[in-house]
Design brief:
alpha/beta; 3-stranded parallel beta sheet; 13 helices; globular
């Protein structure tokens, strides 16, 4: 395993490659695994009744996980980041949990570490509030609510899924620039899926995450009410446009767009309108600030964290 300075040198060289990512990522990385993560990475994936309505309530033992792809990205991304930079994933220096990716602030407990998570809008709960160790949040709306609760929150914004293409570049999914692409894809929020399932280009967000992302990567334009459908597309540099959700409040979308320098974002009201409008302007955000806010100290202690900060600030 590299020492912290060696890992940081590799990180710096990688970050300088820009947004196209590392074209030499091993294809074995597509395997979803969480074995390397010795710190619990909080994510939302409850079990729900298989049957709808009253039948589901009567047969409560027949359940299955929701498996919404966007809610599963946090553990996958953290595992890949640790593996890629040779960090000590077998040991943890703390019992704290990591809350990364998704609108899961209400799930937090005292002493949890927050890296890029946000508030949903259905619930405005900040969870453990002032008892959190916040390194970054999804956007300024989440930050304002945490500050009101007494938490210390740096002005470091961004959903960590925006870093996706650094580890799995678009070519990894498409097979190269000459591959045939779909003209567009619609990725609805999983609550909106029933209204979109008959659309030819709709992607079911409750499929295996890399399968969903492969379909996004193979599209020339992406739209829909799935926030992480938009985020993954924008990570790849694919034009994307939000379509208003019939089930989700605007808060989390506004939080994301404001955190990426686009407070005047305009969601479409329909597929036709989204296709006519095209993509929003590209995100304006500091990927390096988000990356250096990653809580390496959860795995390698405060000494490693000081080295991480000293090296990144001195770049």
């Amino acid at each position: 395993m590299p020492t912290p300075p060696a890992a940081l040198t590799a990180l710096y060289a990688w970050a300088r490659k820009g947004r196209n990512g590392d074209a030499n990522v091993s294809k074995s990385a597509v395997v979803v695994k969480f074995s390397a993560v010795s710190v619990e990475v909080v994510h939302w994936n409850p079990s729900k009744p298989v049957l709808p309505g009253a039948l589901g309530r009567l047969s409560a033992s027949w359940t299955r996980p929701v498996n919404n792809f966007g809610d599963l990205l946090g553990p996958i991304l953290v595992d890949r980041l640790l593996e890629h930079f040779g960090l000590n994933t077998g040991e943890s220096s703390t019992s704290a949990r990591l809350v990364a990716v998704g609108s899961i602030m209400k799930l937090t407990r005292p002493n949890d570490v927050v890296w890029g998570a946000g508030i949903n809008g259905k619930s405005m709960s900040v969870g453990a509030g002032r008892h959190l160790d916040v390194r970054a949040v999804r956007g300024p709306l989440t930050r304002d609510l945490l500050l009101s609760a007494g938490a210390a929150v740096p002005q470091v914004y961004g959903d960590p899924a925006l870093l996706w293409s650094k580890f799995w570049p678009r070519d990894f999914y498409t097979g190269g620039p000459t591959s045939e692409l779909s003209p567009y894809a619609v990725v609805p929020n999983f609550h909106d899926w029933a209204a979109w399932r008959r659309e030819k280009h709709a992607i079911n967000p409750r499929q295996q995450p890399h399968h969903v992302i492969r379909q996004i990567a193979r599209s020339e334009f992406v739209c829909g009410s799935s926030l992480h459908g938009v985020i993954i597309a924008e990570s790849f540099g694919i034009p994307a446009r939000l379509i208003v959700s019939s089930t989700e409040p605007e808060f989390k979308y506004s939080d994301y767009y404001r955190g990426t320098g686009r407070p005047t974002f305009k969601p479409a009201r329909s597929l036709d309108e989204a296709l006519e409008m095209g993509g929003e302007p590209s995100p304006e955000w500091d990927d390096w600030s988000l990356l250096k806010a990653f809580p390496i100290d959860l795995w390698q202690g405060p000494f490693a964290a000081r080295n991480w900060q000293d090296t990144t600030y001195g770049r």
